[in-house]
Design goal:
With 246 residues, the protein is mainly alpha-helical. The chain has one domain. It has twelve helices and six strands. Strands 1-6 form a two-stranded antiparallel ribbon. The longest helix has 27 residues, at 43-69. It binds iron/sulfur cluster. Iron/sulfur cluster binds at residues 83, 87, 152, 154-155, 162, 164, 168-169, 172.
Length: 246
């Protein structure tokens, strides 16, 4: 069967329509942290649940936008080209991810730990090279990183699946392809893909407000507020600590 994919121009037109017409439902983001602020549970629970629910809201907001302009992602299970891009998150997000993984069932946690131990051994030299790229000052760091073909630490390269899919960071869940999937296979930096990364500000805005509230209440749990929000690094650096998970 001959599949008719959208052209770059058609995708751009729909994105423009989104920019001009679509209103992000901010309330969805803030209602989550308001709900968890009132819950009578440990602060660690409040943090982890608000983090994971906010990630879900980012994904559901992307679905609403896609429905609004009739876009259907052509990304498919087992395709992992975007898992070779550099992923940069702040220390608070890294702590959320690590805590969420620490709370995974033992079997899954151990599988991740063993995968990571092998990963850091196998890609030692490549990792050294990519983490030396200055993402703050080098305009070409993405392409340079991409060229090394270093997989993300959370990617199972046997199955091409993310080992922490439900808590994958914002850059992963906002990067989409709406045309022929081959564009990802044949280009290091395909121009056809689009990113909904602007949703980051809604997600981080809600988390920041929540942390500020907890700070004023006197307990921010495992988060050092506000310092953790300002420290950014590659996921490959943040996840290394998980090899020591007991
Ligand atoms: S966290 Fe998961 S989805 Fe994101 S790049 Fe890594 S393997 Fe891919």
């Amino acid at each position: 069967m001959n599949i008719q994919y959208l052209s770059l121009e058609e995708i751009q037109e729909r994105c423009e329509k989104l920019t001009n017409e679509y209103e992000i439902d901010e309330e969805k983001f803030y209602s989550i942290v308001e709900k968890w602020a009132e819950q009578d549970v440990r602060v660690e629970h409040k943090l982890i649940y608000s983090f994971t629910e906010l990630l879900d809201v980012v994904s559901s907001e992307i679905t609403s936008m896609e429905e609004y302009v009739g876009l259907t992602a052509t990304c498919r299970l087992g395709c992992s080209f975007c898992c070779y891009f550099p992923i940069i998150i702040n220390e608070m997000e890294a702590k959320f991810m690590k805590q969420a993984i620490a709370n995974f069932p033992e079997e899954r946690r151990k599988a991740i730990q063993s995968h990571l131990t092998n990963y850091y051994e196998k890609y030692k030299d490549q990792i050294e090279e990519v983490v030396s790229l200055d993402f703050e000052n080098d305009a070409d760091f993405k392409l340079k990183y991409r060229k090394t073909l270093t997989p993300c630490p959370m990617l199972n390269t046997d199955t091409n699946q993310c080992m922490a899919y439900e808590i994958r960071p914002i850059p992963c869940r906002t990067y989409m392809n709406y045309t022929n999937p081959n564009v990802c296979e044949t280009n290091l930096m395909p121009k056809e893909t689009i990113s909904f990364e602007f949703l980051y500000s809604e997600y981080m805005g809600a988390l920041n407000e929540f942390l500020q509230f907890l700070y004023e209440e006197g307990d921010t749990g495992f988060v050092q507020y506000p310092d953790d929000l300002y420290k950014h690094d590659y996921l490959v650096n943040w996840m290394k600590e998980l090899t020591n998970l007991s």
